[in-house]
Design goal:
By secondary structure, the chain is mainly alpha-helical. The chain has eight helices and no strands. The chain starts with a helix and ends with a helix.
Length: 201
């Protein structure tokens, strides 16, 4: 059950954190919104629920649950700020909407992602390496982390955290924790390339 829950979490994160790629936000919804905004309301539920399922399956201890809880609160809070700011920016773009969406919302949201990942990583200790499907799922998570950071303007902190996750994965490369290395090292490379490109402009 643990492996299935973890795989579901990875797939949900990798897919749902790219709703912005939907063409034209799936069209105009009620009161000037986009239908993609309404779908976006489900993202915290569809990402955090399988993550919590993973925690239950792992029989996580209280400290890990506390870490997960803080991450889940930050995730939901930041995502809500982002969604509201982004939806407003679609109809009335301006510096205030940009601040809440692209700066505050993304920073809190992605901090929540990092804490949830840290909690899930804790549950991986001592578990065997995954079957083959775990590696593309891990890569999807790491690249999603990187592309979200590029789009959300959090390249530097995301790069630091990707390197930290990669280092942890290297230390646990004989165990399930290797998925962090497989996922976040390519993400770190992408982020480093983005940062170098920005600095050279």
């Amino acid at each position: 059950m643990y492996a299935r829950a973890l795989a579901t979490t990875a797939l949900s994160y990798g897919v749902l954190h790219h709703l912005g790629l939907l063409p034209d936000g799936l069209g105009t919804g009620p009161d000037g919104t986009r239908w993609a905004d309404w779908l976006d309301l489900l993202v915290p539920w569809l990402v955090l629920a399988p993550a919590a399922w993973t925690m239950v399956a792992a029989e996580a201890d209280r400290r890990t649950w506390l870490l997960f809880g803080m991450g889940a609160l930050a995730y939901a809070n930041g995502h809500g700020i982002h969604l509201a700011g982004n939806s407003l920016a679609n109809t009335e773009p301006g510096p205030t909407a940009h601040l809440w969406d692209e700066v505050v919302g993304h920073a809190i949201w992605y901090a929540g992602v990092a804490l949830v990942v840290a909690a899930l990583a804790t549950t991986m200790r001592g578990r065997p390496r995954p079957p083959w499907i775990g590696y593309p799922l891990a890569l999807g998570v790491g690249l999603t982390w990187a592309t979200n950071a590029v789009g959300g303007g959090t390249v530097v902190p995301a790069l630091v955290l990707a390197l930290a996750a990669s280092a942890w994965g290297w230390q646990r490369r004989a165990e399930l924790g290797v998925v962090l290395l497989v996922g976040f090292l390519p993400g770190a490379v992408l982020l480093a390339g983005e940062l170098i490109g920005r600095l050279s402009q």
